[in-house]
């Protein structure tokens, strides 16, 4: 079992912690899972990817680095706002800080 779980469905990436571990191992597991998903075609890219679930700052950097190259915009869910916040964008349809459902 992995220390970090990542699944995608309909351009929504669901993330969660798995087995207890420190960030050094969690970062490696998250990166490995993203590579596995890219190799299998699960991460096909597109205009927008939403991410929902608990995440540490080091894991957020790994996801941002890997996903910003294949998606036009990336948004993280903010439970306080009840919306996704555009955090990375190369897509003119989305501006940094835009709130989307």
From TrEMBL:
InterPro entries: CRISPR-assoc_prot_Crn3/Csx3. Pfam families: Cas_csx3. This is CRISPR-associated protein Csx3. It comes from Dendronalium phyllosphericum CENA369. The lineage of its organism: Bacteria, Bacillati, Cyanobacteriota, Cyanophyceae, Nostocales.
